[in-house]
Automatic annotation (TrEMBL):
It comes from the Bacteria. Transmembrane segments: none annotated. This is cysteine desulfurase. It catalyses: (sulfur carrier)-H + L-cysteine = (sulfur carrier)-SH + L-alanine. Keywords: Iron, Iron-sulfur, Metal-binding, Pyridoxal phosphate, Transferase. GO terms for molecular function: cysteine desulfurase activity; iron-sulfur cluster binding; metal ion binding. PROSITE patterns: AA_TRANSFER_CLASS_5 (PS00595).
């Protein structure tokens, strides 16, 4: 049985050129980049080249990038580092109800330590209301953290407008751009963000590496202690191998982003057309006109998501939902709950499809044809 992978928002396979680059680094460059001898300088050169390439991709200075073990660590450093460094100016934080758990859980931890966190709601399209953000801002607000693109429904938030709103405020502005980096052109100067998070394995690079962009005017309280790597912001020997792979993934991304988006949109159009051809009842969650091209979240009425995912997997289709299925029970998506309320049926029947560069239009036809009998069978059981 052939398998079709449509879960690229979870992770992407290594690009072929990334595999080649990492193989070369494994074979020829093993030194510790902090060592002053030839082998160390050789690895330091690779590290500096990667930092230059990746910083350029977001129009940031070379010195503004902090390499981390991934998006989660970068988010934690941004949130805890900002909160602790600025708590003398206030202890109020603003975020949204639809953030990734790598943002929500640090905010919840800070709440337990006495910080005051405002969780902004979203409307049915998944959008934050700028007026509500204005109303939530206080003199003691020290951090605003709002994601660029939601990982479950693909909705884009008005990051530049938020940056402009906060320009004259003391609050540090952080955005989790993990899902945006591979599909949107990111310019931290235009966006007016102070901190920005990205991850390698969402853009066909290796797992275990990411970065935090930090504007030079802002201070963070260090969270990982040891050596003086990453200008003392993040101790620990840099993962030169993974960082070199990350750089190669970014190089390819810069060349192919436009054509990738065109391809993703064609896949989306074909999937929707094929589902309609199968005469299935479905609806798209979130703002259809304000979403990235590679993520679509679809509700199939009168189905049950856990059984749906299992049947799709047995049919060779790899997708996901916003639900965490454990011990036979479903924890509804906090994103869909924020959008539609706690009682809405869409919390329990929605599937996320996320497209990749190797997916084909024919696969979209196959997916629709395999989904149709599964949906009919599940509806008959409801």
């Amino acid at each position: 049985m052939s398998h079709i992978y449509l879960d690229h928002a979870a992770t992407t396979p290594l690009h072929e050129s990334v595999q080649e680059q990492m193989t070369s680094v494994m074979q020829n460059h093993f030194g510790n980049p902090s060592s002053i001898h030839f082998f160390g300088r050789d690895s330091r050169k690779l590290l500096d080249q990667a930092r230059t390439t990746i910083a350029k991709s977001i129009n940031a200075p070379f010195t503004s990038l902090i390499f981390t073990s991934g998006g989660t660590e970068a988010n934690n450093l941004a949130i805890f580092g900002s909160a602790y460094a600025n708590e003398q100016y206030g202890r109020h934080i603003i975020t949204t109800q639809i953030e990734h758990h790598a943002v929500l859980h640090p905010c919840e931890r800070l709440e337990s330590e006495g910080f005051d966190v405002t969780y902004l709601p979203v409307d049915e399209t998944g959008q934050v209301d700028l007026n509500q953000l204005k109303e939530a801002l206080r003199d003691d607000t020290i951090l605003v953290t709002i994601m660029s693109v939601n990982n479950e429904v693909g909705v884009i938030q008005p990051i530049q407008e938020i940056g402009e709103l906060l320009e004259e405020h003391q609050a540090v502005f952080h955005t989790d751009a993990v899902q945006a980096y591979g599909v949107q052109q990111i310019d931290v100067q235009e966006m007016k963000v102070d901190l920005l998070t990205a991850s390698s394995h969402k853009i066909y690079g290796p797992k275990g590496v990411g970065f935090l962009y930090k504007h030079e005017k802002h201070h963070l309280k260090q969270q990982v202690f040891g050596g003086e790597q990453e200008r003392k912001w993040r101790s620990g020997t840099e993962n030169t191998l993974a960082i070199a792979g990350f750089e190669q993934a970014v190089k390819v991304l810069m060349e192919e982003r436009e054509s990738r988006n065109t391809h993703y949109q064609a896949l989306f159009n074909e999937l929707i057309a094929q589902l309609e051809k199968q005469e299935m009842e479905f609806s798209i969650n979130g703002d259809l006109n304000n979403r990235v091209s590679n993520i679509v979240n679809i509700s199939f009425p009168k189905t049950e998501v856990e059984m749906f995912l299992t049947n799709l997997d047995l049919a060779g289709i790899a997708v996901s939902s916003g639900s965490a299925c454990t011990a036979g029970s479903i924890d509804p998506s906090h994103v869909l709950k924020a959008m539609y309320g706690e009682e809405d049926e869409r919390l329990y029947n929605s599937i996320r499809f996320s497209f990749g560069i190797h997916n084909t239009l024919d696969e979209m036809k196959q997916v629709a044809e395999k989904i149709q009998p599964i949906v009919e069978r599940l509806k008959s059981l409801s």
